[in-house]
């Protein structure tokens, strides 16, 4: 945000009026930082209003959508309130289009635009922000789309600043099951490539229309990265692409996107590219590097850990597709069926 940008300071009364006193009907998103409300300002302009549970520096400094203003207030009954007012993303989240009630499938040009926009946003966090930021919760519901389907990375409630010169951090695991990189879920080792893994999973969802985690039956969950790799390994690359997609792209370009998604979601940390390498590959004629063989399926790896553990700890990952991972103090996850 430039130094010349002028922000509006809204009163808490303005915010309450815009959201009908934080009506549940106006909630359009939930995240680690708090809720997002649709708001209608006094001039009729529709905005998104983020109400923080705990104010986070990462939540504002890394914001990837235009900030209109803010509200800071303290009341006897509501305590300390901190809110920011942003442009409303007219097309909602990527999750809405892939798995929500939106009936029309996204065309290939739009999917390509979303993929590249998300990669660029992530590259900004890793290499443009000072200090660098690891998002920790890249998923379809955190990719917001404006009126032209430009993608914006959202929800920095779990984001971590990466100290300069540090290649990785050891930290308590947080995020969403299905999107969390194996080395982070298993050992608490967090790097920029942990976000790249999550991006790879989102890209596979975008290309296939399938969720990160699915289950043919309750005992055998399936991870999208394992599914896609099995197709690629058997030279069925284009079978990853969703059927019935309008305005499909060229065979070569679609194959390139599938291969980069599979490479990004590789279970081995250093088999993955950095996100700036991803952007270069997607923007140019640069080839996708060869994909190393996958030593074990992600689900099988998690199952082995589950069998070796007997009790859960104090942390947790949020659930996806009916499964939830509780994390022990030692950083090892136990996967269980989440209650409906």
From TrEMBL:
Chief place of localization: membrane
Domain of life: Eukaryota
SMART domains (UniProt xref): S_TKc (SM00220)
Catalytic activity: L-seryl-[protein] + ATP = O-phospho-L-seryl-[protein] + ADP + H(+); L-threonyl-[protein] + ATP = O-phospho-L-threonyl-[protein] + ADP + H(+)
Membrane topology per record: Single-pass type I membrane protein
Cellular localisation: Membrane
Principal EC category: transferase
EC nos: 2.7.11.1
InterPro entries for the chain: Kinase-like_dom_sf, Prot_kinase_dom, Protein_kinase_ATP_BS, Ser/Thr_kinase_AS
Keywords: ATP-binding, Glycoprotein, Kinase, Membrane, Nucleotide-binding, Receptor, Serine/threonine-protein kinase, Signal, Transferase, Transmembrane, Transmembrane helix
Residues that, per the record, bind ATP: 50
Residue ranges occupied by any Protein kinase domain in the UniProt entry: 22-291
Cellular component per GO, a single term: membrane
GO MF: ATP binding; protein serine/threonine kinase activity
Family: Belongs to the protein kinase superfamily.
Protein name (record): non-specific serine/threonine protein kinase
Source organism per UniProt: Stephania yunnanensis
Lineage of the organism: Eukaryota, Viridiplantae, Streptophyta, Embryophyta, Tracheophyta
